[in-house]
Design brief:
Layout lengths: L1 H37 L6 H17 L9 E2 L6 E2 L1 H8 L15 H24 L6 H12 L2 H5 L7 H18 L6 H11 L1 H19 L4 H21 L1 H13 L30 H6 L8 H12 L5 H16 L4 H7 L13 H17 L6 H20 L9 H21 L6 H21 L7 H21 L5 E4 L7 H5 L6 E2 L5 H9 L4 E2 L2 E2 L6 H6 L2 E7 L27 E5 L3 E5 L7 E4 L13 H13 L6 E4 L4 E4 L1 E3 L6 E4 L7 E6 L6 E6 L8 E5 L2 E2 L10 E7 L6 E7 L3 E3 L4 E5 L1 H12 L5 E3 L4 E4 L2 E3 L3 E8 L4 E5 L2 E2 L11 E6 L2 E3 L1 E5 L2 H32 L6
Parallel strand pairs: 3-7
Antiparallel strand pairs: 1-2, 4-6, 5-6, 7-9, 8-9, 10-26, 11-22, 12-15, 13-14, 14-21, 15-20, 16-19, 16-22, 17-18, 17-20, 23-24, 24-31, 25-30, 26-29, 27-28, 27-31
């Protein structure tokens, strides 16, 4: 009998563990299997253009150069990394990257995403198994959560998935708190802030709303005490993370939070359209950019959520409380004030409804509660659910033409699984022994169908494209660093992503970061570089900006790569037509790249006799702005740019307007329309076209001597396009091909940059400059030098309160007026100098102090509580 009992216990224990394993393994393997069978890489949109670069930077520096995770010159022109770390890099899962060679970074990221999806299934199963007795129902809910529309639609936003994992644990901690049981609310609050403060805020905000929906069902005498415990623990968990939250707050005030959103009482879109996002495969590129939030949770669970409010066993007060919360969450998808509230006062740029995982979790939770009632479903309940299902599928079918993702397959799948949901609820649930396994299999099958339909609408980059790019660029960068240990910037005439400097390990100019310095963005825009609200590139630069911004080295494509196997060849995507960069001096020829050196590049810190003044820029006059930059640096009152007249145009299927020769109309809509300008430079200077932002690749295509010009814009900012350099007497042919019926070229200007004069002035200016080197990541030090009069030491380093400036070991004050409205600068008296700049993250140190004090207080309180508990259980021995 004892053996039989032990065997039965052993079987029970194994069975229990199996469901835990299944809750983790099945979602992870389902997700992985799609990429295995489709042979796709995981890199797409921001994961391929931003996050992979941050993760490469994290992997390269965490253990070898950890101070670079505080501040780095790979971050645009230079910037703090603390908020970037907090938003993108603090997931503990990222430590798994060190188990893989750098070459296999994309594969490592795919495995991390799959593990996070599995962990979301595990944490939600842990929560729901306490809510429902049947393991299959809990397992089905956990799979629906782990592979929900939010997770599938945001799998590449892997930094948000930690909050998806932690949300069930947060709600479990709140449930235990309300039940006056031990809980881990402090730890979970800390982890939510730590792993991603953005979605962590959303989860914690939902936790508060969830608490408020439950607190009124608690005894009145206990409400105030429980509210106080919740508040105290939430504050404690938040203050433990002060070392991260304090820097994030400051950097957000300097970046995104400094811009204002338009608050109004309108809708983001028609609320009824949100119904289409309940369908299978309701996802594509348009949806991630300008679509609606992802709320897919499977058809049976959608019906069970409605059944919760039709249940006869659940009292009306709880239905009312949960109904109010559900309506609030649904309204948050499209009502502007609530959208802004959930997204920290900013409209999301791409990826709408970033908080919708809390709505999905809450709806699934209501469905689980409905399942646990084990009530016999009445015909009227089945009838109402059937009417809803018919209404939903009719709406989807009749509106399919308005939504690209509502394909015929999606419509059929949605209808089929709605029918299976009705079949289960009305005729199988609580009537047959196989109900739970049947339900689980239906859910898993539907999740697979939705995953295939959704991800099938996306395009992924090849892993080899990223690997070939980083291998070749890193090789050239390492060569430059080995042969030049100075303090300088490097750029390219092409780019894979705006964050290439992070992947390849160089100091560049381009940057793509959700947390950006607004002053730097404004300057970049005024100088004519391609940019938007959170990114900028080297496109639009000239030899003048190369010199002033200290771009000492350039990487150029080596087109002679025909002998290299196609699988190993680099793709020179997003080519920047910088003919003038080929004038720089060749340093090294690699198999797929040229490394050239700009001898006129200024150091990143330089002496100038000019007094720092606020610059009044004209965003519509790029050459004037670049001239102001040049004059502020050198003091030379010369005009390097000269406007030249357009040559006579050759028109093909185009007529020009009589009053304005630069306005054109297409003759025949069925034929190609071209405008061709032929020009022979009379000097070896560089020639540029100033292109207004409203003329882009949607309006025209453009070639220069047959080479295609990239005309893509971001925020319709004007930019300079290099036509040629050192081509005296050679023909430059500029061709515009119309894509529309009309073209107005009156806003386009033709410029010549006097490069000879530029080189002469820069050469004289550089001779008087001190040398600077970066020693550790946070220290920049000069050689000893002497000034004969009062000078300004200006820089192209973005100003930051954390820069501490010392002259001969003594702290000196920085100028309050920023150089070029963005850069660090300070005055130097006549005499001998040795300058040291130290980046001291004051707010981080303050946050660390607050976190340490908070931890100490918590440990003291815990010790006192333990002593108090022990004293209560101690009983005196009788004598």
């Amino acid at each position: 009998m004892m053996l039989k009992f032990l065997n039965s216990r052993h079987i029970a224990i194994n069975r229990k563990n199996i469901f835990f394993w299944l809750s983790f393994l099945l979602p992870a393997l389902i997700f992985l299997s799609y990429f295995f069978y489709s042979k796709n890489g995981v890199l797409t949109v921001d994961l391929g253009q931003q996050y992979v670069d941050f993760l490469a930077f994290f992997r390269r520096n965490l253990f070898s150069h950890p101070l670079r995770l505080i501040y780095s010159f790979s971050n645009g022109l230079g910037g703090s990394m603390l908020a970037t770390d907090a938003y993108y890099l603090c997931s503990p899962f990222n430590l798994l990257l060190f188990l893989f060679p750098q070459h296999f970074l994309p594969q490592a990221i795919l495995i991390i995403i799959a593990l996070k999806i599995g962990a979301a299934g595990l944490s939600s199963y842990y929560y729901w198994k306490q809510k429902i007795t049947n393991h299959f129902y809990a397992l089905a809910a956990s799979s629906a959560y782990a592979l929900s529309g939010y997770v599938i639609g945001n799998h590449y936003n892997l930094m948000w998935l930690d909050s998806v994992i932690l949300l069930p644990l947060l709600i479990n901690a709140i449930d235990r708190l309300l039940a006056q049981r031990k809980n881990k609310l402090i730890l979970i609050t800390f982890l939510l802030w730590f792993t991603n403060f953005y979605t962590g805020f959303m989860a914690l905000a939902f936790g508060l709303l969830y608490l408020l929906s439950k607190i009124f069902f608690i005894n009145k005498q206990e409400r105030l005490r429980l509210n106080w415990i919740y508040l105290r623990k939430s504050i404690a968990g938040s203050f433990l993370d002060a070392f991260m939250l304090f820097p994030v707050l400051i950097e957000m005030l300097q970046g995104k939070a400094s811009s204002t959103a338009s608050w109004n009482l309108g809708w983001q879109f028609s609320p009824v359209e949100q119904l289409t996002k309940l369908a299978e495969g309701a996802y594509n590129f348009h949806e991630m950019q300008e679509g609606m939030p992802n709320i897919y949770l499977t058809m049976p669970f959608l019906l069970l959520t409605i059944l919760y409010f039709l249940s006869k066993k659940i009292n009306w007060q709880r239905k009312l409380a949960n109904g109010i919360l559900l309506i609030f969450l649904i309204a948050s998808l499209f009502w502007t004030p609530l959208v802004l509230l959930w997204h920290l006062g900013q409209f999301p740029v791409w990826y709408p409804g970033r908080f919708s995982f809390v709505l999905i979790f809450f709806a699934l939770n209501l469905g689980v509660i409905a399942l646990e009632q084990k009530e016999r479903i009445a015909y009227w309940q089945t009838g109402l659910l059937t009417l809803f299902s018919l209404g939903l599928i009719v709406y989807i079918v009749f509106n399919a033409s308005h939504f690209d993702f509502l394909t015929e397959d999606a419509q059929i799948a949605t209808g089929a699984f709605l029918a299976l949901g009705i079949l289960f609820i009305g005729f199988i649930y609580h009537q047959h022994s196989f109900a739970a396994p049947f339900f689980y299999l239906v859910i898993e099958l539907e999740l697979i169908v939705n995953l295939v339909l959704s991800l099938g609408n996306l395009a992924y980059q090849k892993n080899s494209d990223y690997q070939n790019f980083t291998t070749n660029v890193s090789q050239a960068v390492q060569y430059a660093n080995q042969h030049d240990s100075g303090f300088y910037r490097t750029e390219k005439t092409f780019y894979r992503s705006d964050d290439d400097p992070f992947s390849a390990g160089y100091y560049g100019l381009s940057n793509f970061n959700s947390i950006s310095d607004q002053k730097v963005l404004n300057l970049i825009n005024n100088l004519g570089f391609l940019n938007n609200s959170n990114s900028y590139t080297n496109f639009g630069g000239t030899t003048l900006t190369d010199d002033l911004l200290g771009i000492k080295y350039y990487l150029l494509p080596n087109d002679e790569i025909t002998t290299i196997k196609s699988g190993k060849q680099m793709k020179y995507d997003n080519s920047n037509h910088r003919v003038d960069a080929s004038d720089y001096h060749l340093q090294k020829r690699f198999s797929q790249l040229y490394l050239v050196k700009n001898n006129a590049a200024l150091p990143l810190l330089f002496l100038t006799s000019q007094k720092t003044q606020k610059i009044n820029f004209n965003s519509l006059d790029i050459t004037s702005n670049q001239t102001k930059f040049f004059q502020a640096v050198t003091g030379a009152k010369v005009q390097l740019f000269k406007q030249i007249n357009w040559p006579k145009a050759k028109l093909i299927n185009v007529t020009s307007m009589k009053n304005d020769q630069l306005q054109y109309n297409r003759k025949n809509n069925k034929q190609i329309a071209r405008i061709i300008f032929n020009f022979k430079p009379q000097t070896d200077d560089s020639y540029y076209i100033e292109m207004p932002g409203e003329i882009d690749d949607n309006a025209i295509s453009m070639t220069v001597n047959g080479a295609n010009i990239n005309l893509a814009v971001r925020d319709q900012n004007a930019r300079l396009i290099n036509l040629g350099s050192h081509q005296r007497g050679q023909r430059l042919q500029v061709t515009f091909e119309l894509k529309k019926d009309k073209l107005d070229l009156s806003g386009i200007h033709f410029w010549r940059l006097n490069t000879q004069k530029l080189e002469q002035i820069i050469h004289r200016f550089k001779q008087k400059q001190p040398n600077f080197k970066q020693t550790p990541a946070l220290i920049i030090k000069s050689n000893h030098f002497t000034t004969k009069k009062m000078m300004t030491l200006a820089s192209t380093i973005p100003n930051n309160i954390n820069w501490l400036v010392l002259d001969n070991g003594k702290i000196i004050n920085k100028n309050k007026t920023l150089f070029m409205n963005a850069f660090l600068n300070f005055k130097l008296n006549p005499g001998k100098h040795q300058i040291t700049l130290i980046y001291v993250p004051w707010v981080l140190l303050l946050g660390m102090l607050v976190s340490l004090i908070s931890l100490t207080i918590l440990l003291i309180c815990k010790k006192k509580a333990t002593v108090s508990a022990n004293s209560k259980t101690f009983t005196r021995p009788t004598v």
